[in-house]
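[recover] target loaded
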């Protein structure tokens, strides 16, 4: 077609009946369904697609798969913009927008290409040796410049509008790769009745069969492929998953995979995710991921128009695209000659074949003669020419004579590396196979076997044979099917001689090892000279193999050059190992729906709707939304509201929703013993029907949480925790039981959401509770004293629990009812308390009242305080062992000058105190050396008429009455305060026991 000058008139697997339009760098091009973006660009003659990372050299398409190091583009725009996408894996769709990256102001004219002139100064490790003088330039000049130049591509400027999913699958046999070995394995296992999942990263199954003109069982390979896919589709236990990359292998047969559900569409279909992250549990797995073709390191090997020979075949046979018309082939193996045949068959002019081997097969020579191509046995490419695309090459023959030939395509073949990455994800190390001149899988993870090219068995016959054998064996190992012989398809002959050449010495220009990170053979030599000879040091010093492609096309050449420099074999030099993911994975696919508010879903108390009706302002407390305060019309700010709520409780009665407190039900013969071990105080002596305050420590001796625990029956306890710590405490208790004391007869379960609970506090609280609790229960002070905890009924028989506990310091009760009755409970309390002027109050008023009483909360229990720091050291039992007991006695934790809890009030009553202010002695400079502690909690006390605070101060309890400065450098304030008792109101506890 005239709009696609390099599209072949026929052939390929694209749908020529439909034409897509797409844009690259603002220019409109055309392609067909079945194209990749790379194929469509080549069909339109677009050779220059990107710029290299460091030198900003022109780069073109090198490969046809996920190993592509050069053709990284930005897809889409706006909120859906996606950087660093390989054009070779992007499935073309109508309206696709792509933009080149790492260039300014344009791809063709990139200012930073001037970096090439500074090549001698930008060698490996240059960043360790430069930007060191003058020191003042680093922050003002060097760092801003480096940050501007660093990175590839641009992230989306807005939140991603698409959604992602997580999914789980279980199978008998997982097959990774949909080429000939994978398909034959799936067929063999599927016929046995095994549950099979076949994943392939491509949108079309077939692997190398799509790129080759081969025969199977005497017929075109395409016929065998179609028949195989049809039979697999008919097997009910076989699941085919195209567009799915298995990116990681983890413990116990678990594999991570990402399915690109809507990446081939401009916008995902309604109710469909963009991508889906899979966790696949497989009893057996067969790795049939194929192999990756290797380039050759020679001067100018990065110029647009230099391509891997196998990829050239893929563009011709699969996409119907001729990447160039005047071609030179540079090969070190028989496989390269297959590309020569396909090029000639497609109508290209084959100018020359440069075979680095001195002996060339006579059949190949005869073919070259018929094609009119020169053959340079024992030759090498010494240089390439052209600015933005290849124009010619310089060939050095075996005698050293140089020949310059014009061409627009240089196809390079240096053999293949098995795609064995997943075999390394469990610390398996590849081993060097001298026969195939490649690293092959070493020790394999349990349950995994490797087939075909991924195992270093590169011929089609070997791939088919491995697939049939391993698919059948996997099924038999699982007790499915029988070990009967299944016929292996036959194939046409396939020459496979190989003698790789790792680099061409001599010539002019840079010879690249790692195309994406601009690592040259000279960089590897420099690393060797400077002592970075270990393969791990080489990788980190030069950044070889550290780009987004993980060195898929570069690692082996870099290792070979280092081995040469050290006088070792490749086997002796060794190799690095691969880590997940095999190819880059979007964070969205890993997170699924866990983003935004779905990352930590908001939990609503059973009383939430009632609080909303009352006009509550809510605050996030852990995962919960709690009522912070209940403003009334005319109240100008939150402080006015909180003052009203506090005074209402102190003078009459109020109630607060405490449903969100953690509630853990603990039962069993050893339940009391269990509590003895997790709390610092004793629990065996606690009477049935009573509650007790408890404090638990972490193993390092610091306070983890506090709360009350009630003994409901002899072997039945109910523990409460702070709202934000409920999950952490539950996890801690489960660890203690399962790992430390599994011999104890104890069981526990979280019941936080099963009960709605309200605290009713104030001098008139008993009258309100009396109106709610059924008359059969006596809640008088004599029969239901402080710290009583019993089962009661309310509303004519509804089961409930009543606790005489208080966080406010007032006469108070906590009433718990089943969650379904939470809303009704709040309305009943409002009705019962109406004669007494009952007032709902929120967490702000609750906080004020607890500070007035000197009760610690999350501000003080911050992971850095001990029981002694909080004035609770006397609770620590000396008659038993408990978690954290020994570590809490460490010398640094019992020093006399440790910051300890005390109270503070302003010397001038009208001055405001601020949490976070640091304590500095009078007359001392406000700096870290003179810092003696800080304010943890601050509140305005309506009862006292001034601000009060709790804080941690060195030697605090022994300094009562002393004056110090509370310095807040963040808000630029300083207040003189007096050290006092942390209990500001009713220190005798008269109100509490009223």
């Amino acid at each position: 077609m005239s709009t696609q000058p390099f599209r072949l008139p026929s052939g390929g697997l694209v749908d020529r009946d439909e034409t897509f339009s797409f844009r690259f760098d603002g220019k409109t091009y055309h392609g067909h369904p079945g194209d990749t973006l790379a194929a469509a660009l080549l069909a339109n003659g677009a050779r220059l697609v990107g710029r290299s990372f460091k030198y900003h050299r022109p780069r073109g398409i090198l490969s046809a798969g996920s190993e592509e190091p050069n053709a990284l583009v930005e897809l889409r725009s706006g909120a859906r913009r996606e950087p660093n996408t390989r054009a070779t894996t992007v499935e073309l769709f109508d309206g696709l927008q792509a933009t080149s990256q790492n260039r300014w102001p344009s791809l063709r004219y990139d200012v930073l290409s001037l970096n090439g002139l500074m090549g001698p100064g930008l060698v490996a490790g240059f960043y360790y040796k430069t930007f060191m003088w003058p020191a003042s330039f680093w922050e003002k000049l060097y760092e801003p410049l480096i940050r501007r130049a660093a990175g590839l591509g641009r992230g989306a400027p807005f939140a991603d509008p698409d959604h992602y999913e997580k999914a789980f699958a279980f199978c008998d046999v997982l097959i990774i790769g949909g080429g000939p070995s994978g398909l034959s394995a799936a067929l063999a296992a599927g016929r046995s009745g095994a549950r099979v999942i076949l994943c392939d990263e491509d949108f079309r199954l077939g692997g190398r069969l799509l790129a080759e003109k081969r025969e199977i069982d005497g017929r075109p390979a395409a016929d065998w492929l179609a028949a195989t896919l049809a039979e697999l589709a008919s097997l009910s236990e076989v699941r085919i998953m195209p567009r799915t990359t298995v990116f990681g292998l983890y413990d116990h047969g678990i594999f991570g995979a990402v399915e690109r559900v809507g990446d081939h569409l401009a916008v995902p279909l309604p109710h469909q995710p963009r991508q889906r992250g899979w966790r696949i549990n497989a009893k057996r797995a067969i790795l049939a991921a194929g192999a990756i073709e290797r380039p050759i390191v020679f001067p100018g090997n990065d110029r647009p128009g230099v391509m891997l020979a196998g990829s050239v075949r893929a563009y011709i046979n699969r996409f119907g695209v001729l990447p160039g018309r005047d071609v030179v082939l540079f090969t070190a193996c028989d496989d390269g000659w297959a590309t020569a045949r396909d090029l000639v068959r497609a109508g290209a002019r084959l100018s020359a074949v440069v075979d680095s081997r001195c002996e060339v097969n006579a059949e190949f020579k005869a073919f070259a003669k018929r094609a009119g191509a020169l053959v340079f046995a024992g030759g090498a490419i010494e240089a390439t020419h052209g600015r933005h695309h290849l124009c010619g090459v310089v060939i050095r023959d075996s005698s050293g004579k140089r020949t310059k030939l014009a061409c627009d395509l240089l196809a390079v073949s240096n053999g293949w590396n098995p795609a064995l990455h997943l075999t390394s994800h469990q610390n398996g190390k590849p081993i060097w196979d001298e026969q195939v001149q490649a690293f092959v899988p070493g020790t394999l993870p349990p349950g995994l076997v490797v087939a075909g090219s991924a195992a270093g068995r590169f011929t089609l016959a070997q791939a088919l044979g491995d697939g049939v054998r391993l698919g059948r064996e996997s099924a038999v190992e699982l007790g499915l099917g029988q070990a009967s012989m299944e016929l292996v398809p036959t194939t046409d002959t396939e020459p496979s001689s190989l003698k790789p050449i790792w680099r061409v010495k001599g010539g002019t220009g840079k010879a690249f090892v790692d195309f994406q990170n601009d690592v040259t053979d000279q960089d590897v030599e420099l690393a060797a000279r400077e002592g970075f000879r270990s393969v791990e040091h080489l990788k980190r010093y030069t950044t070889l193999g550290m780009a987004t492609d993980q060195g898929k096309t570069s690692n082996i050449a870099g290792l070979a050059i280092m081995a040469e420099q050290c006088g070792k074999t490749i086997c002796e030099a060794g190799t690095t190992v691969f880590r997940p993911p095999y190819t880059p994975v979007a964070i969205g696919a890993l997170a699924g729906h866990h983003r935004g508010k779905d990352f930590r879903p908001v939990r609503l108390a059973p009383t939430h709707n009632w609080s909303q009706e009352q006009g509550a302002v809510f605050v996030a407390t852990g995962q919960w939304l709690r009522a912070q305060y209940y403003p009334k019309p005319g109240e100008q700010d939150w402080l006015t509201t909180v003052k009203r709520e506090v005074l209402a409780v102190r003078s009459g009665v109020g109630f607060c929703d405490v449903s969100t407190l953690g509630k853990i039900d603990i039962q069993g013969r050893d339940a009391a013993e269990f509590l003895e071990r997790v709390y610092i105080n004793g629990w065996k002596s606690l009477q049935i029907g009573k509650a007790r305050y408890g404090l638990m420590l972490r193993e390092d001796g610091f306070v983890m949480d506090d709360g009350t625990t009630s003994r409901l029956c002899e072997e039945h306890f109910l523990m409460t925790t702070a709202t934000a710590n409920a999950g952490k405490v539950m996890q801690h208790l489960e660890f203690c039981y399962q790992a430390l004391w599994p011999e104890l007869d104890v069981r526990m379960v979280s019941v936080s959401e099963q009960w709605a609970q309200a605290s009713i506090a104030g001098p008139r609280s008993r009258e309100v509770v009396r109106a709610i609790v059924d008359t059969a229960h006596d809640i008088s002070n004599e029969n239901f004293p402080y710290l009583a905890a019993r089962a009661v009924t309310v509303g004519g028989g509804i089961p409930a629990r009543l606790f005489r506990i208080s966080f406010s310091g007032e006469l108070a009760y906590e009433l718990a009812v089943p969650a379904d009755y939470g809303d009704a409970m709040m309305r009943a309390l409002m009705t019962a308390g109406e004669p007494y002027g009952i007032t709902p109050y929120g967490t702000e008023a609750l906080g004020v009242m607890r500070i007035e009483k000197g009760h610690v909360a999350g501000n003080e229990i911050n992971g850095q305080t001990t029981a002694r720091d909080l004035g609770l050291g006397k609770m620590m039992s000396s008659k038993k062992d408990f978690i954290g007991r020994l570590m809490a006695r460490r010398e640094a934790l019992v020093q006399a000058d440790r910051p300890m809890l005390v109270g503070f009030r302003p010397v001038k009553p009208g001055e405001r105190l601020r949490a976070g202010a640091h304590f500095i002695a009078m007359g001392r400079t406000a700096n870290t050396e003179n810092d003696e502690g800080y304010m943890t909690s601050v509140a305005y006390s309506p009862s006292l008429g001034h601000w009060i605070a709790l804080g941690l101060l060195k030697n605090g309890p022994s300094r009562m009455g002393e004056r110090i400065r509370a310095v807040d450098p963040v808000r630029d304030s300083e207040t003189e305060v007096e050290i006092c008792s942390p209990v500001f109101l009713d220190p005798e506890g008269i109100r509490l026991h009223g």
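[recover] notes: The first helix runs from residue 37 to 43.
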